[in-house]
């Protein structure tokens, strides 16, 4: 068992981000050949990720506000309590809109092989 506190948030600069969202201290562990990560991410108005893919499954649990999740073919509004699943290799982005009046937060869970890599695509 592993227990970690994620109560404090810090600004994170990451190559997949547009803007500098706040993120809690991530929790990570490995099971056989699979790495599992989780963290809460808060996007201020106008902040979002670039299009990207993962070498495993990414799950988002929306904890605050209203935001957008999108693939190359579809954009969908999500809000507190929604659960989003991106299958391995699906190009997607998630975040807040420029017009938003409040923050948008989600907890992300990512399960992928230890040698899996994040692939950043061009922004639309």
Automatic annotation (TrEMBL):
<feature type="domain" description="Cupin type-2">
    <location>
        <begin position="40"/>
        <end position="100"/>
    </location>
</feature>
<dbReference type="InterPro" id="IPR014710">
    <property type="entry name" value="RmlC-like_jellyroll"/>
</dbReference>
<feature type="region of interest" description="Disordered">
    <location>
        <begin position="1"/>
        <end position="27"/>
    </location>
</feature>
<protein>
    <submittedName>
        <fullName>Cupin domain containing protein</fullName>
    </submittedName>
</protein>
<dbReference type="InterPro" id="IPR011051">
    <property type="entry name" value="RmlC_Cupin_sf"/>
</dbReference>
<dbReference type="Pfam" id="PF07883">
    <property type="entry name" value="Cupin_2"/>
</dbReference>
<dbReference type="InterPro" id="IPR013096">
    <property type="entry name" value="Cupin_2"/>
</dbReference>
